């Protein structure tokens, strides 16, 4: 009975399906992929297609190289050296790998320097950080979103806010994830 109750409490899924023409200038496929940072996979369904169009080939080839890092502690993403070496000197992307945003704790580092954590209720409370309930959480709030601006943190490494976040990631609730990473030097 308890298992059945837990299944009902699982947050809703959000599946976005977009019908698009890659050759059309007003097509929204690029915008949808680039603005949903917690996605690490995009599937294409092209019926009766023997050869890919050059637009689709170019889109896939644009992604560039990425790296897979196992068991990376979250506090490594907020160090002074990391922020100045990667976040400020290009577009750095990081996304937890093999996690489901609606069930697991996930992290995304966006190219604009925002570190976004999607945490379950227990982990959110254990970190002691401020956040907001996820809008996809349903009636009973089970997921919380914590957003940290690394560009703002880099200027104030001695601030109470930085010390609080660093303490939370290192000592209070040390979190480790497998990450997919990509960096484009500007």
Automatic annotation (TrEMBL):
MF GO annotations: ribonuclease MRP activity; ribonuclease P activity
GO cellular component: multimeric ribonuclease P complex; ribonuclease MRP complex
InterPro entries reported in the protein's UniProt record: RNase_P_Rpp40 (IPR013893)
GO biological process, one term: tRNA 5'-leader removal
Pfam families per UniProt: Ribonuc_P_40 (PF08584)
Protein name: Ribonuclease P protein subunit p40
Organism: Neovison vison
């Amino acid at each position: 009975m308890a298992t059945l109750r837990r299944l009902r409490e699982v947050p809703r899924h959000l599946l976005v399906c977009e019908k698009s023409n890659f050759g059309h200038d007003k097509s929204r496929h690029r915008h949808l992929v680039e603005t949903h940072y917690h996605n690490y996979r995009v599937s294409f369904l092209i019926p009766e297609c023997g050869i890919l169009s050059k637009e689709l080939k170019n889109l896939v080839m644009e992604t560039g190289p990425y790296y897979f890092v196992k068991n990376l502690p979250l506090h490594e993403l907020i160090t002074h050296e990391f922020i100045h070496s990667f976040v400020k000197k290009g577009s750095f992307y990081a996304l937890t790998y093999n996690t489901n945003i609606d069930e697991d704790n996930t992290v995304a580092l966006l190219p604009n320097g925002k570190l976004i954590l999607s945490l379950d209720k227990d982990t959110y409370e254990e970190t002691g950080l401020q956040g907001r309930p996820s809008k996809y959480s349903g009636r009973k709030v089970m997921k919380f979103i914590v957003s940290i601006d690394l560009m703002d943190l880099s200027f104030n490494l001695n601030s109470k806010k930085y010390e609080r976040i660093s303490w939370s990631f290192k000592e209070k609730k040390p979190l480790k994830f497998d990450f997919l990473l990509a960096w484009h030097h500007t």
